[in-house]
Task: structure prediction
Amino acid sequence: MPDVKTTITELPESRVRVEAEVPAAEVERRVQDTARRLGRDLKMPGFRKGKVPPPIVIQRVGREYVLDETVRGTLGRWYVEALDASGIHPVGEPDVDLGDLPSPGDPLTFTIEIGVRPTAQLGDYKGVDAPKREPEASDEAVQAELDALRERGASLDTVEEPAGDGDFVVMDYVGSIDGEPFEGGEGRDQLLELGSGRLIPGFEEQLRGASAGDERTVDVTFPDDYGAEHLAGKAAQFAVTVNEVKRKNLPELDDDFASDHAGFDTLDELKEDIAAKLREADEQRADAEYREAVLDAVVAGATVNVPAGLVDARARELWERMLHSMSHQGISKDAYLQISGKSEEEILEEAKPDAEQALRREAVIAAVIEAEDIQPSDGDVLAALQASATREGTTPEKLRERLESAGRLDEVREDLAQRAAIDYITEHANPIEPDRAAAREKLWTPDKG
Result:
């Protein structure tokens, strides 16, 4: 990786200016790469297509054009390298100012102005009090697991009775609009649970009381926001033939059920096993909640100046992150705004408290790392990479080398240091009962000092 030289100047409001310089040799290497790429599509007498040498390409199209293309394609990489070289922790979008394009033999310079993680002045971070609850497995939670197990073991039995809510009908149907069948409006032997709300509003209700062999005409109107635009808002008729009525038959909750569906001798043994697993899962949640409560207690005792501009930037980062996550689920930004019934400005405003607290937490964790000189060892790094290496069919050592060559090993070390910092303050904290913590909160409000 080329060494992008950086000079950092601190600015007000937790911002910095990074002056970056890309060495002339690196610029020239990238210019040659660009010329080589452009040469693949260039046709010139005396040269085979795709074989025009870089110097000829530069002479033909002009160095300024090749340099401009180089900067367009490579500035993003140089920007990332400049941030890595500077060691800062950026927050929000940068202002990038590119200087004049360099002459041959000169370096390329650009400046970045960007928000950075605020700094924290620690208060007490050893021995803080934080609420910690006991893990539990309530009777309701155990019963819910049993009900789910019963559902999985249920059978659908044909009945010679009219269908009601909770029953299933096996049906054929043909849909039409103004007497004309429409695409996707026909189905055979479709299984539908009445009362499930799976179909267009009004459809299932018109099949209540139907028996096997009945033919019914179902009148419905497609919702205005229906997914298929050619059907949205249209009135339709469905000719439905009910082939069968089926009823769900749930097994009895008894010792036989425990044996047949879960491999336990008695129902009590099954309940005890479910309760143990629920408590184990809740113990992990309770530990995570406690670690967060300890961190927030340390944050409350620290002094952290978080400028409003930094909070705005982090709120937008959180919003963009959520949009990216939802896009993988096929949910667009406009769809989410419609579902939530809120504007983007309202969502960003609501995200500000979480954004500010996240910045405070990060600042405090960084301060604890510095105060306790927390530095993950090579052994810690290899241990952390073990699971990923196993999944990828390699060794932790080889994975570490790959991450190091990609410039990502520092991310692993920083993540380990942050976890170790939270481990440290948690190990030195005093767990108290949640009720006691809540009573304290009422007595000692910020207004009362």
Remarks:
- The first strand starts at residue 5 and ends at 11.
- Residues 175 and 310 are 56 Å apart (CA to CA).
